[in-house]
Task: structure prediction
Amino acid sequence: MQIFIDTANPEEIAEANSWGVVDGVTTNPKIMLAEKGCNFRERIERIVRLVDGPVHVEVTTNDWQEMVEQAQGLASWHRNIVVKIPMGIPGLKAVNQLKRLGIKTNVTAVMSVNQALLAAKSGADYASIFFGRIGDMGYEPVQVVRDAVRILSDGQFDSKIIVGSIRQLADVNRAVLAGAHVVTIPFLLLKQMTVNPKTDETIAEFMRNWQ
Ligand code: E4P
Result:
């Protein structure tokens, strides 16, 4: 399985990448908004230079023809760019078209197994299941991820399930155990994954022993 970082902050990306744990990057309009004042294209071009892996960038329209146009523009910036397309009928039309043009896509804001199946069938390279947001609706996200992964595997689809909207450390473990091909994690949580109070206590004990 792969770990992506869910941020457009170059310092965070470079730091996590230096730990050897980053296979790719995901962004979205909300993540870009957090990077106040940055130039969109310059920022994405900086990110693709930082990580040797897919960088996911989202279109900003609900019209399928505009999605195709925007996707062609985004994909022309760098060979590692994967275009995020919102789930829905316009999104599926766009993905179907982009597949023919050889542009990689990630159908995003997927909340159900039905949606993941259609994303895969339409030719998406990835489907992004929003773990935290599914939980917000009162549903069990583990079940959605597990069933979607199984359906894609049984149906011999090449599409990968990315689990995003990760809010807690336990979400990472639950998503991985459910079979997610990729989990995309915010930097703060990636940092928290390194920490355990018993580890700190043990290292401090060994340092004292050495003294
Ligand atoms: C990643 O690809 C998603 O866009 C992101 O994880 C969504 O996270 P949120 O639900 O916290 O906005």
In short: The CA atoms of residues 169 and 192 lie 8 Å apart. The mean pLDDT is 98.
